[in-house]
Amino acid sequence: MPESAEHRHYFVVIGGDMARRVCGLLRSAGHLVCHLARPTDEDLREALRRDVTGVAVLLDDDVESLRYALAVEHIHPHVHLVVTVFDRTVSEQLLRVLPNCQVTSPADVAAPVLLAACLQPDLLSITQTPEGHVAARRQGDDVHLEPWRPARSVRYRARLGRIRGQLRPHDGSSRIMLTGLAGLLMVLLADWTWLVAHHRPPVEALFEAARTVSAVGPALAHGSDSYLVFSAVAMLVTIVFTAVFTAGMVDRLLAPRTVGIVGSRALPRAGHVVVVGLGQVGLRLCTQLQALGIGVIAVERNPQAPNLRLAKALRVPVVIADATDRFVLSTLGLRDAQALAAVASDDLENIAVSVASLAVAPELRVVMRAGEHEAIAETRSLFRIGHVHDLNSLIAAYTTASLSGLRPRGILTSGKRLLVQREDGAFVPWPLADRCDHPHEGDTGDRLHAAAGTVNRDA
Fold first, then answer.
1. Where is 351: in which H helix or E strand?
2. 195 and 333 in one domain?
3. Which residues contact 214 (CB under 8 A, 6 or more apart)?
4. How many CA atoms, within 13 angstroms, populate the side-chain half-sphere of residue 30?
5. Most buried residue, 168, 397, 406, 432, by most Cβ within 10 Å?
6. Are 414 and 97 in contact (CB under 8 A)?
7. Of 228, 254, 280, which residue constitutes the final position of a domain?
8. How far apart are the first and last CA of the chain?
9. Please, are residues 14 and 36 in contact by the beta-carbon 8 Å criterion?
10. Is the separation of the CB atoms in 56 and 45 below 8 Å?
């Protein structure tokens, strides 16, 4: 609700679309807001010249967020700061240097809501705590918190899916390598079986079989004519299998390995969740699923994505492919998957992925990140794609709650309502965020705006 004149405050908001949501929400409450996209030091000094209640830095780049937070603290010491930072090391250092700062990331705010939508849609969120996972469930007009863990059947299905994924490679080079290896083992076993069947000691038979597979040949003094012919054919076949195995091994060693053949980075075949988009939100969702024992497959279009190396360190299997391709989706086991989460930064791409996935598996549970593009409203009016979540609205609610003095523990969506969980655990309704009318980030024109009017400045 709008504030009275004596309770109006002045805020500075830095960033793009998320900042526009925060700016619109604060302005609708009657506050004065100075919204800057990517300001210069001179812009910051002018914006912070008056009495400032709080500053929000809402950028996707951790380095930029850190720079602006330090600049704001230098210009206006001890002002209340809310900063979005993904990297935990950067956030810890920022909190150490600026104790007046609240640090969060869109991934931290959105992951509990997306996690619940992927695993159990009747829940509002699933949050990891030191004591275990806690789920928020709607009970009438109230929200009830309860300890939660996946059902035994879900855990069993996920474990079986991971077992089925062992030694079932997704990429061609791994299949070639395993084919060559299987051929060599088959020749070795066949030669050993022949010799043992002809009353040779098992150890001596293994030695002779190894000589055949290595193309050295059997000892002539111990071989019959039929065995010598068999060994000759086996050695010729071994040459082919060795070439196939070597080709697959070389290609796999030289190419970036984002998927394993065995172990935790092998692609699960059932009970898993497919996460499309390996940005901050996608990576955090993958790690949250793994913490619950749920298999996960991440799909990323860009082979140079910055989070690929981090995903490898976190043992997250990543398929480099275009997830809008139905052939790619059909190889990911969607029919046996728990859900698909399309959480790329582009709304239209998420829509395309969701539609393609439903064409492959019509009964699949689809969770989609959307709301930043105006086309999403029209698309949702045509048919139900899946569980749609507007991440920028969640971040806007978290930021405005933080700026207003709360220290929110999380944000929930309940129908068309937003609920902010306060530090004491209680939930309070929060208004939805409308974008302000300031230009988009990157638009030409003025960059410094205020609620009372527009201050014309050169960029």
1. helix 347-360
2. no
3. 238
4. 8
5. 397
6. no
7. 254
8. 33
9. yes
10. no
Residue matched to tokens 């709301």: 371
Residue 5 pLDDT > 60: no
* Domains: count for the chain: 3
Give which of 443, 420, 403 is closest to 22, Cα–Cα.
Answer: 403
Q: How far is CA 37 from CA 17, 290, 443, in A?
A: 9, 36, 10
- pLDDT, one tens digit per residue, over 136-160 is 888 877 888 889 988 888 888 888 8
**Six token digits for residue 337:** 């998957």
- Please state, for a pLDDT cut of 90, what percent of the chain lies above it: 24
| Other Cβ atoms within 10 Å of 6 Cβ, number | 5
Token duo for residue 363: 């009964």
Beta pairing partners, 389: 369
Convert the pLDDT of each residue in 72-117 to its tens digit. Answer: 999 999 999 999 988 888 888 888 888 888 888 888 888 999 999 9
Structural domain span for residue 199: 172-254
Domain assignment present for 232: yes
In this structure, the chain runs to a length of 459
d(CA 238, CA 217): 11
Contact criterion met (CB below 8 Å) for 364 and 334: yes
373 is written with which tokens? 């593009």
Whether the per-residue pLDDT at 301 is higher than 50: the answer is: yes
> 448-450 and 453-454: which strand pairing?
antiparallel
Three-state SS at 284: helix
- Pairing relationship of beta strands 54-58 and 80-84 according to DSSP bridges: parallel
Burial class (CB in 10 A: 0-12, 13-18, 19+), 159: middle
The encoded tokens of residue 84 equal: 């979005």
